[in-house]
Amino acid sequence: MTGARKDVPALIAALAVIASALVVWSREPTMAADKPPADVVMYLQKISRTDRTPYHARQLVVYMGRPQSAAVLDIRSSPRAMFVRSDAGDDVVRLWRRPGIGVVAARNGAVTDDALDPSALRAADVVEKYEVTMGPAEKMLGVDVVPLTLVRRSDQLMVERLWVNPASGVVYRRELFGPTGHLVGLSTIIDMRWGEKATAERYDPDAVPATHALVTTDAGAPRTLPYGYRLSHAYRLGVGGRATLQWVYSDGLHALSVFATKGPLRPPRDFDVAHVAGARAFVGPGPATWAWEGAGRTWVLVAEEPDLDPSTILVHFPRGTPSVWARMGSLWSRAFAVVGRIF
Questions:
Q1: Of these four, 96, 231, 288, 290, which has the most CB atoms within 10 Å of its CB?
Q2: Domain spanning 215-325 has what CATH number?
Q3: Which residues are CB-neighbours of 70 under 8 A, at least 6 positions away?
Q4: H helices, E strands: number in the chain
């Protein structure tokens, strides 16, 4: 058992968390100078719109937990490309995206894809799942922002707050909350420079060997999951030398990814042991990360929406280690192989 194999669940979880944060928290802004709309749906629609105005922003992203994690994102966007560098202590994650290619590179691995555009925020799905209320305008970094509070209709849990600039649709601050109202994660812009043509780092494909994420069929993937998540697309990629499936879901605002890798689960570092839906699982970093074993595969689920009940989600996937009889069969197979070599 090598350290690299142990870290496969942690690596794909980390890459998924970073990718989710970049997609949702780093949307390109619009620069429309229209009047602030009173309808919250208009704010939600503006968040997902894009423009060709270059900008250079720095964001602080923090996940509370055990241990707490924090990163500073340096975002450089132009009409043709986007570059994001995430610094979290000694760990550096970089994202390059332009028409035709997208790359996410970390210290232990990199993934390239065909740069599918992130799904636009679906305002109708958001208001169906959440009660969205608007507060009085405030000032943040010298610009007007309006706070939106999202309460999940199913259990009346306040999930998050967004501070949106009415003119541009940029989310200047975002807070995620746990079941008791405590803060579990936040993202806030700490510097924004419009029109700045910032220079991005160059991508060196030889620095970190990359695996390519291929769009594949979604055979075997549940079409829907609890909390209003619908299957968006499916990838096939290699992580840690093993073939991995990634199923991506969306509820209109949040992303949720499920990874399935052939082979037994190797207990990942920095995960806590838990029992979910009658199976032994591991709880990892971020608002919602779980790893478990089932049907000869290692499964990892990563979501950015906090306080999801894992037992209602994991029941849609295989769970449990191989049966005693299967283990005995494997043992007898190895025994006969040894005998065959002797005689």
A1: 290
A2: 3.30.200
A3: 60, 61, 62, 63, 88
A4: 6, 22
